[in-house]
Amino acid sequence: MKPKCFLTLLCLICISTANFAASPNNFAKTEPFAIRTMPPAPKFTDSERQTELANRRAKVVAAMDDRSALILMSAQPKIYTGDVDFLYRQENNLYYLTNLKQASSALVLIKDGAAAAKEILFLPRREPSRETWNGRMYSPDDATRISGVKTILDASELDNFIQSIKDKKLFSSTDKSVSASTTPENIYLLLPDNERDSDGMREFPEEYKFSKSLSGYEIKNAQPIFADLRVIKSAFEQKLLQHAIDITIEAQERAMATAKNVRFEYETQAEIEYVFRRRNADYWGYPSIVGCGENGTTLHYVESQGAVKPTDLLLMDVGAEYEHLTADVTRTFPVGGKFSKEQAEIYQIVYDAQEAAAKTIKPGAMYYEPQNAARRVIEQGLAKLGLITGVGALVPGTEQQAPDGKGGTKTVGVPQFTLWFMHGWGHWLGMNVHDVGDYSKPFREGMVTTNEPGIYIRSDALDYLPKTPEAQAVIAKIRPAFERYKNIGVRIEDDMLVTKTGVEWMTRKLPRSISDIEAFMASASKQTISNKQAKQISPRIAVGVFDRDIIFTDMNRRLYNGK
After folding, report:
1. Architecture of the 235-525 domain
2. Which among 64, 205, 421, 546 would be 20 to 30 A from 83, CA to CA?
3. Are 128 and 100 in contact (CB under 8 A)?
4. Under DSSP, is residue 161 helix (H, G, I), strand (E, B) or coil?
């Protein structure tokens, strides 16, 4: 930069700063930013991470039978098209025990009676030619530093190990540095629940194929072991999961703050996923759901192609993934900043259902308790609005007689409220958005569940009821309310950590009540520069248009106003 140009620029900055400081609208009177910036990512030493992973491996071994071997294979790269792969994501349970993201790797845990468990990590050798194209691979020292596993063998030895299992022979590495003293009797693999488990078949095809090639062993599914362990989050995991949630909270608030300035759902999705990348999330934990108006009544709407209208509600069900742990957070808010009477009535029912459910969550309670609490509130609220004919009312044509447990019968069927609340109340959360865990067991400290009731008044819902006099009578009775609330979709979803005495709302910092949402949007909209204004400014001074730094935002606002 030439000296004369530099002096000119310096003078301009000084003048601008002087005017800014002299103004009555200075820092002392600037409102705090409505959008929260997430806290820094948690940091762990190598020793802390290694201790955590060693504890997990020890718990897995403790759950295994004696004379057993657990074989965990890495995830296979998934083809996007041609020679392009999807972003690689390690198999959850291998990552759970090693924190390694290397493809073509494997972990073997061998338990032989009273002897200490043997841990063997098979790792691809570093290849300069591959690293030139795809980046640095783990060295054995890297893998040990990250995972704490000390016995590292080249991945080329894995075939020999697998063959020794098939032949029921003792394994010995090529250089004789690693060997097994006994052959196992039990082989643990990650397997589908059964042959009808299509998801399991897709996720563990190599393991299933391998299991069918073995004979003379007791083949055991390792999934229940990991489900029991992963459903309880350690303090280490809780910190990482909270960070994923904090990233998601910032993304949700940014989307709310900018909603008035967007025209299409994909713009709001872009705002959300921009924060994910800016805050170094691994990825999203599931495809973002951003639906405005009628699109908000589709549970897993992922197209994001609809228009965003000021009079509609916008439903955002999104979650950042950080270190293989995903958030899952939903907010529904009015694009224009204020709920209409009808929108507020539906929203309040869902809010009250969520509150009722949360009060039942504590150690020892069963999973169906919050679900039943949420359903009761929603059923009563829908009956009050006239969207069902009454509490306990059934969908015509679904009635049947069933034993009442007292020697008689009772009429059962599909409750009418499921026309508008058709999904479960919540699910376990962790490495999967719908994480592993047994729903028949009581809550325990360290479990994390979602709390996500909803009401969806789909425009075509009544069209699918039976064409019978009974069904038509029900339709006629609820039609006026249906027309009043049609195309309103509301879901509120928070992530809940079970504590010693109850539950902690991990998403508590994100506005949730009607009053808090409206207040947030009113405050945030004052601090967000509109697209129309931004287009009027030279790119040279439009830097930081959506930055949360108070100085630049306030200075830009003054420049827009000619000050």
Report:
1. Alpha-Beta Complex (3.90)
2. 205
3. no
4. helix
Q: Cα dihedral angle (92, 97, 100, 105), rounded to 10 degrees?
A: -80
Cα four-point dihedral sign 183, 188, 194, 198: negative
CATH of domain 46-230: 3.40.350.10
d(CA 106, CA 291): 41
First to last CA, the chain: 27
What is the band of 547 on the pLDDT scale with cuts at 50, 70, 90?
very low
Token duo for residue 196: 């009808």
Angle at 79 between CA 78 and CA 80, to 5 degrees: 115
With H, G, I as helix, E, B as strand and everything else as coil, classify residue 7. helix
* Portion of the chain with pLDDT greater than 90, in percent: 83
Listed in sequence order, the DSSP H helices in 84-138 are: 92-98, 128-134
Lowest-confidence region among 27-36, 411-420, 497-506, 519-528? 27-36
Q: Answer whether residue 152 shows pLDDT above 60.
A: yes
- pLDDT tens digits for range 110-139: 999 766 799 999 999 999 999 999 999 999
Global model pTM greater than 0.85 = yes
Rounded to whole angstroms, how far apart are CA atoms 493 and 378?
A: 15
Q: Give the strand pairing for 186-189 and 68-73.
A: parallel
